[in-house]
Fold this protein.
Amino acid sequence: MAIIGAGIAGAAAAHRLHAAGRRVVVFDKSRGPGGRMATRRGPDGLRFDHGAQFFTARDPRFAARVEDWTARGVAAPWGGPHRHAGTPGMSAPARDLLAGIDLRCGRAVGRLVRDGEAWRLQEADGTALAEGTAFSTVFLTCPSPQSLALLAGAGRDLPGVGDVRYAPCWTLMLAHDGPPPFDGPVREDRDPDAVFAWIARDDTKPGRDGGTLVAHAAPAWSRANLEEPADRIAERLVAALKTLVPVGTVRHAAAHRWRYAQVERAVGADCLFAPETGLGFAGDGCLGPRVELAYLSGLALAERVIDGGAP
Protein backbone atom coordinates (compact mmCIF):
# COMPACT_ATOMS: atom_id res chain seq x y z
CA MET A 1 0.00 0.00 0.00
CA ALA A 2 1.17 3.52 -0.75
CA ILE A 3 0.39 6.58 1.34
CA ILE A 4 0.98 10.02 -0.13
CA GLY A 5 1.62 12.49 2.67
CA ALA A 6 3.49 11.98 5.95
CA GLY A 7 1.42 14.34 8.08
CA ILE A 8 -0.50 13.08 11.07
CA ALA A 9 -3.28 11.50 8.96
CA GLY A 10 -0.85 9.60 6.76
CA ALA A 11 1.23 8.62 9.78
CA ALA A 12 -1.82 7.34 11.67
CA ALA A 13 -2.94 5.28 8.68
CA ALA A 14 0.53 3.87 8.12
CA HIS A 15 0.96 2.97 11.78
CA ARG A 16 -2.37 1.12 11.89
CA LEU A 17 -1.73 -0.76 8.65
CA HIS A 18 1.80 -1.69 9.72
CA ALA A 19 0.46 -2.99 13.05
CA ALA A 20 -1.98 -5.16 11.08
CA GLY A 21 0.88 -6.69 9.11
CA ARG A 22 0.41 -4.74 5.89
CA ARG A 23 3.38 -3.55 3.87
CA VAL A 24 3.23 0.23 3.63
CA VAL A 25 5.36 2.79 1.80
CA VAL A 26 4.87 6.47 2.72
CA PHE A 27 5.88 9.25 0.31
CA ASP A 28 6.23 12.93 1.15
CA LYS A 29 7.61 15.82 -0.86
CA SER A 30 9.10 17.50 2.21
CA ARG A 31 12.46 16.74 3.79
CA GLY A 32 10.84 15.14 6.81
CA PRO A 33 7.50 13.93 8.15
CA GLY A 34 4.90 15.96 10.02
CA GLY A 35 3.05 17.89 7.33
CA ARG A 36 1.52 20.96 8.93
CA MET A 37 2.70 19.68 12.32
CA ALA A 38 5.98 21.20 11.28
CA THR A 39 9.23 22.25 12.89
CA ARG A 40 11.51 24.61 10.93
CA ARG A 41 15.20 24.99 11.70
CA GLY A 42 16.81 28.42 11.58
CA PRO A 43 20.38 29.67 11.97
CA ASP A 44 22.42 28.98 15.11
CA GLY A 45 20.28 25.98 16.03
CA LEU A 46 17.00 27.89 16.23
CA ARG A 47 13.79 25.89 15.85
CA PHE A 48 10.23 27.07 15.27
CA ASP A 49 6.91 25.24 15.32
CA HIS A 50 5.62 27.21 12.36
CA GLY A 51 2.55 25.12 11.54
CA ALA A 52 0.09 23.59 14.00
CA GLN A 53 0.80 24.95 17.46
CA PHE A 54 -0.78 22.34 19.70
CA PHE A 55 -3.29 19.51 19.79
CA THR A 56 -6.10 18.47 22.09
CA ALA A 57 -7.52 15.02 22.75
CA ARG A 58 -11.24 14.35 23.19
CA ASP A 59 -11.74 11.00 21.48
CA PRO A 60 -10.68 8.07 23.71
CA ARG A 61 -8.50 6.55 21.00
CA PHE A 62 -6.51 9.72 20.44
CA ALA A 63 -6.43 10.47 24.16
CA ALA A 64 -4.80 7.09 24.76
CA ARG A 65 -2.24 7.86 22.06
CA VAL A 66 -1.46 11.27 23.59
CA GLU A 67 -1.11 9.69 27.03
CA ASP A 68 1.44 7.26 25.59
CA TRP A 69 3.32 10.06 23.83
CA THR A 70 3.42 12.08 27.03
CA ALA A 71 4.71 9.14 29.05
CA ARG A 72 7.53 8.60 26.55
CA GLY A 73 8.47 12.26 26.09
CA VAL A 74 7.09 12.55 22.54
CA ALA A 75 4.58 15.20 23.69
CA ALA A 76 4.03 17.41 26.73
CA PRO A 77 1.30 19.70 28.11
CA TRP A 78 1.50 23.30 26.90
CA GLY A 79 -0.52 26.47 26.61
CA GLY A 80 -3.68 25.71 28.54
CA PRO A 81 -6.01 22.96 29.74
CA HIS A 82 -5.87 19.82 27.61
CA ARG A 83 -3.38 21.33 25.13
CA HIS A 84 -0.26 19.40 24.17
CA ALA A 85 2.75 20.05 21.96
CA GLY A 86 5.18 17.62 20.41
CA THR A 87 8.67 17.45 21.90
CA PRO A 88 11.27 18.47 20.96
CA GLY A 89 9.18 19.76 18.02
CA MET A 90 5.66 19.46 16.68
CA SER A 91 6.74 16.86 14.13
CA ALA A 92 7.68 14.39 16.91
CA PRO A 93 4.29 12.57 17.07
CA ALA A 94 4.27 11.88 13.32
CA ARG A 95 7.87 10.70 13.48
CA ASP A 96 6.95 8.37 16.32
CA LEU A 97 4.03 6.83 14.43
CA LEU A 98 6.22 6.26 11.38
CA ALA A 99 9.06 4.54 13.25
CA GLY A 100 9.94 1.28 11.50
CA ILE A 101 7.87 2.12 8.39
CA ASP A 102 9.26 2.62 4.89
CA LEU A 103 9.24 6.44 4.69
CA ARG A 104 10.54 8.17 1.58
CA CYS A 105 10.82 11.93 2.03
CA GLY A 106 11.82 14.38 -0.65
CA ARG A 107 9.78 12.36 -3.14
CA ALA A 108 6.97 14.35 -4.77
CA VAL A 109 4.31 12.13 -6.32
CA GLY A 110 3.11 13.83 -9.49
CA ARG A 111 1.17 11.08 -11.25
CA LEU A 112 -0.83 7.94 -10.50
CA VAL A 113 -0.72 5.46 -13.38
CA ARG A 114 -3.08 2.49 -13.57
CA ASP A 115 -1.32 -0.81 -14.26
CA GLY A 116 -3.91 -3.57 -14.49
CA GLU A 117 -5.52 -3.73 -11.04
CA ALA A 118 -2.74 -1.78 -9.35
CA TRP A 119 -1.16 1.68 -9.31
CA ARG A 120 2.32 2.89 -10.11
CA LEU A 121 3.59 6.19 -8.76
CA GLN A 122 5.58 8.67 -10.79
CA GLU A 123 7.09 12.09 -10.38
CA ALA A 124 5.56 14.89 -12.45
CA ASP A 125 8.08 14.29 -15.28
CA GLY A 126 7.19 10.61 -15.46
CA THR A 127 10.15 9.30 -13.46
CA ALA A 128 9.10 6.18 -11.60
CA LEU A 129 8.85 6.19 -7.83
CA ALA A 130 9.32 2.83 -6.08
CA GLU A 131 10.73 1.33 -9.27
CA GLY A 132 9.28 -2.10 -9.93
CA THR A 133 6.56 -1.78 -7.29
CA ALA A 134 2.83 -1.56 -8.00
CA PHE A 135 0.36 -0.74 -5.23
CA SER A 136 -3.11 -2.19 -4.89
CA THR A 137 -4.17 0.68 -2.63
CA VAL A 138 -3.18 4.35 -2.55
CA PHE A 139 -4.13 6.72 0.27
CA LEU A 140 -4.14 10.44 -0.49
CA THR A 141 -3.55 12.36 2.73
CA CYS A 142 -2.21 15.57 1.21
CA PRO A 143 -4.51 18.65 1.02
CA SER A 144 -7.56 18.41 -1.20
CA PRO A 145 -6.25 20.51 -4.15
CA GLN A 146 -3.14 18.34 -4.39
CA SER A 147 -5.21 15.17 -4.08
CA LEU A 148 -7.62 16.42 -6.76
CA ALA A 149 -4.75 17.01 -9.16
CA LEU A 150 -3.53 13.44 -8.70
CA LEU A 151 -7.04 12.05 -9.15
CA ALA A 152 -7.65 14.14 -12.27
CA GLY A 153 -4.35 13.02 -13.78
CA ALA A 154 -5.39 9.43 -13.22
CA GLY A 155 -8.85 10.03 -14.70
CA ARG A 156 -10.50 9.16 -11.38
CA ASP A 157 -12.79 10.86 -8.90
CA LEU A 158 -13.54 10.55 -5.21
CA PRO A 159 -16.77 12.48 -4.64
CA GLY A 160 -16.35 14.90 -1.76
CA VAL A 161 -12.66 15.69 -2.14
CA GLY A 162 -13.44 18.77 -4.19
CA ASP A 163 -15.79 20.13 -1.53
CA VAL A 164 -12.99 20.92 0.95
CA ARG A 165 -12.06 24.58 1.42
CA TYR A 166 -8.97 25.94 3.19
CA ALA A 167 -7.84 29.27 4.61
CA PRO A 168 -4.23 30.24 3.82
CA CYS A 169 -1.77 31.54 6.39
CA TRP A 170 1.45 33.51 6.34
CA THR A 171 3.56 32.57 9.37
CA LEU A 172 6.30 34.71 10.89
CA MET A 173 9.19 33.01 12.68
CA LEU A 174 11.13 35.46 14.83
CA ALA A 175 14.03 35.29 17.28
CA HIS A 176 14.76 38.33 19.44
CA ASP A 177 16.89 39.57 22.32
CA GLY A 178 14.91 41.00 25.17
CA PRO A 179 12.49 40.16 27.95
CA PRO A 180 9.31 38.13 27.29
CA PRO A 181 7.09 40.32 25.09
CA PHE A 182 3.86 39.38 26.89
CA ASP A 183 2.61 37.28 29.78
CA GLY A 184 1.56 33.74 29.08
CA PRO A 185 2.38 31.51 26.14
CA VAL A 186 -0.05 32.93 23.54
CA ARG A 187 -2.01 35.95 22.38
CA GLU A 188 -5.08 35.37 20.24
CA ASP A 189 -7.11 37.89 18.24
CA ARG A 190 -10.46 36.95 16.71
CA ASP A 191 -10.93 40.25 14.90
CA PRO A 192 -11.16 39.34 11.18
CA ASP A 193 -9.52 42.66 10.27
CA ALA A 194 -6.47 42.08 12.49
CA VAL A 195 -3.09 41.31 10.96
CA PHE A 196 -2.42 38.46 13.38
CA ALA A 197 -4.74 35.73 14.57
CA TRP A 198 -2.21 34.05 16.87
CA ILE A 199 1.11 34.96 18.46
CA ALA A 200 2.91 32.29 20.48
CA ARG A 201 6.01 32.40 22.62
CA ASP A 202 7.49 29.31 21.10
CA ASP A 203 10.14 29.30 23.82
CA THR A 204 7.51 28.44 26.45
CA LYS A 205 7.15 24.95 24.97
CA PRO A 206 9.21 22.17 26.55
CA GLY A 207 12.74 21.97 25.16
CA ARG A 208 12.49 25.07 22.96
CA ASP A 209 14.96 27.90 22.43
CA GLY A 210 14.75 31.19 24.32
CA GLY A 211 13.49 34.37 22.69
CA THR A 212 11.49 32.77 19.87
CA LEU A 213 8.04 33.75 18.62
CA VAL A 214 5.70 32.31 16.01
CA ALA A 215 2.94 34.55 14.68
CA HIS A 216 0.17 33.42 12.33
CA ALA A 217 -1.36 36.13 10.14
CA ALA A 218 -5.15 36.19 10.01
CA PRO A 219 -6.84 34.44 7.05
CA ALA A 220 -8.07 37.67 5.43
CA TRP A 221 -4.63 39.30 5.62
CA SER A 222 -2.98 36.13 4.33
CA ARG A 223 -5.38 35.89 1.37
CA ALA A 224 -4.84 39.54 0.45
CA ASN A 225 -1.05 39.07 0.44
CA LEU A 226 -0.76 35.45 -0.60
CA GLU A 227 1.47 35.98 -3.65
CA GLU A 228 3.88 38.50 -2.10
CA PRO A 229 7.55 37.42 -1.77
CA ALA A 230 8.37 35.78 1.55
CA ASP A 231 11.12 38.27 2.44
CA ARG A 232 8.77 41.20 1.91
CA ILE A 233 6.08 39.51 4.00
CA ALA A 234 8.59 38.94 6.80
CA GLU A 235 9.44 42.66 6.84
CA ARG A 236 5.80 43.67 6.97
CA LEU A 237 4.89 41.18 9.67
CA VAL A 238 7.85 42.20 11.84
CA ALA A 239 6.74 45.84 11.57
CA ALA A 240 3.16 44.90 12.46
CA LEU A 241 4.30 42.75 15.37
CA LYS A 242 6.34 45.60 16.85
CA THR A 243 3.16 47.69 17.11
CA LEU A 244 1.62 45.01 19.33
CA VAL A 245 4.39 43.63 21.55
CA PRO A 246 7.95 44.64 22.51
CA VAL A 247 10.32 42.23 20.80
CA GLY A 248 13.69 43.87 21.40
CA THR A 249 16.45 43.37 18.87
CA VAL A 250 15.44 40.99 16.08
CA ARG A 251 18.08 38.30 15.52
CA HIS A 252 16.21 36.31 12.88
CA ALA A 253 12.95 36.73 10.96
CA ALA A 254 11.50 34.58 8.18
CA ALA A 255 8.07 33.99 6.71
CA HIS A 256 6.47 30.78 5.50
CA ARG A 257 3.36 30.54 3.35
CA TRP A 258 0.81 27.82 4.02
CA ARG A 259 -1.61 27.76 1.09
CA TYR A 260 -3.79 25.17 2.79
CA ALA A 261 -3.41 26.06 6.43
CA GLN A 262 -6.78 25.47 8.02
CA VAL A 263 -9.92 23.72 6.83
CA GLU A 264 -12.90 26.04 6.53
CA ARG A 265 -15.25 23.45 5.02
CA ALA A 266 -14.80 19.72 5.51
CA VAL A 267 -16.30 16.70 3.77
CA GLY A 268 -18.21 15.68 6.88
CA ALA A 269 -17.18 12.00 6.68
CA ASP A 270 -14.34 10.32 8.54
CA CYS A 271 -12.67 9.29 5.26
CA LEU A 272 -13.37 8.50 1.61
CA PHE A 273 -12.56 5.18 -0.03
CA ALA A 274 -13.38 3.58 -3.39
CA PRO A 275 -12.72 -0.16 -3.06
CA GLU A 276 -13.12 -0.71 -6.79
CA THR A 277 -10.06 1.45 -7.51
CA GLY A 278 -8.21 1.16 -4.21
CA LEU A 279 -8.05 4.95 -3.83
CA GLY A 280 -8.76 6.69 -0.53
CA PHE A 281 -8.63 10.18 0.97
CA ALA A 282 -8.05 11.13 4.60
CA GLY A 283 -6.97 14.14 6.61
CA ASP A 284 -8.37 17.23 8.29
CA GLY A 285 -10.32 17.89 5.10
CA CYS A 286 -12.61 15.03 6.09
CA LEU A 287 -13.64 15.92 9.65
CA GLY A 288 -12.32 19.40 10.37
CA PRO A 289 -9.36 21.56 11.35
CA ARG A 290 -7.83 19.79 14.31
CA VAL A 291 -4.83 17.50 14.64
CA GLU A 292 -6.97 14.98 16.47
CA LEU A 293 -9.52 14.87 13.64
CA ALA A 294 -6.81 14.36 11.03
CA TYR A 295 -5.41 11.48 13.10
CA LEU A 296 -8.87 9.90 13.44
CA SER A 297 -9.47 10.27 9.71
CA GLY A 298 -6.25 8.45 8.84
CA LEU A 299 -7.08 5.76 11.38
CA ALA A 300 -10.58 5.34 9.92
CA LEU A 301 -9.26 4.92 6.38
CA ALA A 302 -6.77 2.28 7.46
CA GLU A 303 -9.46 0.39 9.34
CA ARG A 304 -11.80 0.62 6.36
CA VAL A 305 -9.23 -1.25 4.29
CA ILE A 306 -8.36 -3.74 7.03
CA ASP A 307 -12.01 -4.54 7.78
CA GLY A 308 -12.78 -4.82 4.08
CA GLY A 309 -10.02 -7.29 3.50
CA ALA A 310 -8.20 -5.25 0.87
CA PRO A 311 -4.68 -6.55 0.19
The chain has two domains: 2-37+91-164+266-308, 167-263.
